[in-house]
Amino acid sequence: MALNKVDDKRTVVVCGLGMVALSFIEKLLKYDTKHQFRVEVFCEEAQVAYNRVGLTQFFSHREEERMLMQPLSWYSENDVTVHINEKATYIDTTTKCVISENGLSVSYDTCMLATGSYPFVPPIPGWNKTGVFVYRTINDLNEIINYGKKSKRGAVIGGGLLGLEAAKALMDLGLDVTIVEVAPVLMARQLDATGGEMLKDEIDKLGIKCILGIPPKEITTDEDGKVSGIRFENDSIELDLVIVAAGIRPRDELAKASGISTHQRGGIFVDDCLQTSDPNVYAIGEVALYGGMIYGLVAPGYDMADVVASNLTGGDKRFLGGDLSCKLKLLGVHVASFGDYTASKDVAMPLLYNDPFGSVYKKLLFSKDGKYLLGGIMVGDTDDYTKLHALMKSKKVLTVAPGELILGVKSGQAPGADDLPDEAQICSCNNVSKGQIREAVKIEECRSIGQIKSCTKAGTGCGGCLPAVTEIFETEMKALGHVVTNALCPHFSLTRAELFQVVKIKKLTNFKDIIEKVGKNGTHGCEICKPAVASILASLWNDHILNHANLQDTNDRYLANIQRGGLYSIIPRVPGGEITPEKLLVIGEVAKKYGLYTKITGGQRIDLFGARKQDLPIIWEELVNAGFESGHAYGKALRTVKSCVGSEWCRYGQGNSVAFAIEIENRYKGIRAPHKIKAAVSGCIRECAEAQGKDFGLIATDNGYNLYVCGNGGAKPKHAVILAKDISEELAVKYIDRFLMYYIHTADRLTRTARWLEKMEGGIEYLKKIIIDDHLGICAELEEDMARLIYSYECEWAKVVQDPKRREDFTQFINTDETIDGIECISERGQSRPADWPKECAVTEKDISEVKKSANLESKKWVKIAPSSAFPDDAGQVIKYGDTQIAIFNTNERTKWYATQNMCPHKRAFVLSQGLVGEEENGTIKVSCPMHKKNFALETGECVSGDVDLKLMTFEIKIEDDFVWLYLPPKQELDRILGTSKWKVSKKLSKMSKSKNNIEILGSTAAVGCGDISPCGDKKMDW
């Protein structure tokens, strides 16, 4: 069958549809502003172009669609004709026609060969037996997965880039893994002997065995002809599965069959314009032989694609060789090489840095006069790769000594992105130069990093260039007179979104490393950045929230919402609002047993109020045993997915809203975000679940569901906007995955989705492009991130109740099992609740001074309190001394200790020990009260958030013989000043407040209210 032209456009026929072929098509469409070309593609595989660089990611989600570089719809939308499962076998260069093995014939004006390569399989006996695989296509991966289900031991022949990726895949399948490499080092093309040895050491730690420098003699089989092992000259290993990843060979058989010149050892000869021996036929990617070189990396292939696409549309570009520099993460180890990293001693002088303790190796090569950087190798730490690579490519004379590039600058600053010329490549994944980023700011008027990424694609690949991109962006913005800072707090110069990306790219997993490497080193953080970082860590790595307890605001630290008087509320998860009678009875029994106030929430759950901190674990133990999970009402996380009864009961229902709501809530439960997330599913357009007032909501239609996003109720209500219409449940879940992860990646701290969308340049239409059209090319990454969070979910409370050590953290006092109530409760409408706060409630410094007059504070002595090991790092704990509660804090890696009253004088809540410890911009160490974010200096007790009348009593403290000691007056004397029963809000005082509109404070009548400041003490902290 022959397909001929149907219009006057010139036909470009592309043979092959891999990553480089797609890049060529995309660039041709971009440059073809006159619409002169039409494109037809012969695609041998069953899938259109997919991400071969990220093959190993397939093992985590196993969804072919997520691997696609562009959805199938993209090709039809751009008038690109793709012939799936059609392998081109002959090009008639005389008639200018491409013919497939199925007889399909397509005429061309220009033919592009992008047939790529095939895996090289060494001629080892047994290479073709059952259980031997190559690692190249999705079909290969599916075969490996299926065979791996019944395998325990696997080996990879090949220790290069692809071999290490394959080893990671086998490890993910749960196999014991061995890497067999003929060369004496791993990644012999990218690393020297020292770098390869350090990489091997790191891989050894993962339990992967490496056999280097010994060629395999035979792949052995059992009596059924299946792989049983590998035999070497003097040894053998037992195996069930073998992957061969020993290199590639160009797929040039199409060119050979068509009379196009090829090298005898493989590859199609091309010139600077990528033309073959036939002027109407071009070749790019791994099949093209340029200057005696086959380029096996994707970046040079993209460069080739750009040259041909540009020249076909009137440009005049030349391909003068590709850059083989690369930056990767293999089996958890960061590895990079750039420039002439194998330069001989005749032309280069190497400078080495080898840190076996930190597992870091760097080798930079300089010209013999030390004026130019020629190349380098980096293992373990590749943070400086982008700048060093750009500096190498710029060929500029160094402005610092070579040693300062590898060890750090002794004075002044090392050359940064500002020092690079405009032609310096910043993003190697997408070949974006510094000049293009500057033009995006000046000419395209990009005003955010997100817009820069959208406009230039810089930073949308591996993300390693993001710091340099940010530096260039900010410099250009400042030059144009724009304000660019949106720093998280005084301890971090980055925004929350920028910090998220840096933590992700650098794989940072704790606050200490983050503030040392990204923030102001030597500082302690504050009540703003600590919870923000805790949220980022949870959104990225999803380990138990209490692993970072000292970063958590009180609600997250104790997995419950703090209420008046330091009491807590408990809200078990009730997915979709559906609950059985048996579970209802459990909640009722628990509430009755512990005297808890019960109320139905707006999110179709049951709230239990009034739990004491020390009772939380035992209450939750009963709930967990009954099948309940944490409802995460305390966290910036998914709260509820509200539902109507839907088609199961309602006569108007068009969709099973209850079932879908339960599915969604169980999918996203526990996922942390910049702010709380609420959702709903309505079974029809009557909208009983109020889906259009939620962060995301679904409304059933005759044809599926309408998906709404970025709405909310509350103080600033916002109607949600429609993202997609009449979509299936599966597609809705896919879009929600992307939407939530993009919000988590990019929103500022404490920003709801509605405000986030309002700030987004381009609004909902831009969001649609990202979520639906994958405009930034990040949807696969977003879906992978979401899959990891879902997979790693665990109920936080279930983990706590099963761990005696974690349960100890909920005790009221560190030095005694005795307990004290911090507020009295009253009975109202048959339930118990805290006594009312009076309007004037604060205990001022003057009040304390008055009561001090009646106490004898002269006879102080050192009192032994408790082992120092009993106190948490960089956080507070409370002790009982008579009737007085004293909060004890430590900072600076337990070298600096403080002691203050535990009562916050603002509302007389005995909770200061539960507050976040942080640092003011001037270095003052402070604690932030968890009730209303009043901040107090721990050294002096002074309020540093504006209330000059409020001050804490502080006490001398020392550590001696690993015990905490306090310098205190007798108990009865201190109780006169700070006794709990003296200051706590009581029934009597509550009644007086109602009748007199004030409250009598024992010892004084002076008081201070909130006045004109924010009720949270600081408007930044209002939630």
TrEMBL record:
- Ranges of residues in domain Rieske: 862-966
Organism of this sequence? Rhizophagus irregularis
Metal-binding keyword on record: yes
The cofactor named in the record is: [4Fe-4S] cluster; [2Fe-2S] cluster; FAD; siroheme
Alphabetically sorted, this entry's keywords are: 2Fe-2S, 4Fe-4S, FAD, Flavoprotein, Heme, Iron, Iron-sulfur, Metal-binding, Nitrate assimilation, Oxidoreductase
Q: What is this protein called?
A: Nitrite reductase [NAD(P)H]
Q: Which family does it belong to?
A: Belongs to the nitrite and sulfite reductase 4Fe-4S domain family.
Pfam families, per the entry: Fer2_BFD, NIR_SIR, NIR_SIR_ferr, Pyr_redox_2, Rieske_2, Rubredoxin_C
Query: What binding partners and quaternary form does the record give?
Result: Homodimer which associates with NirD.
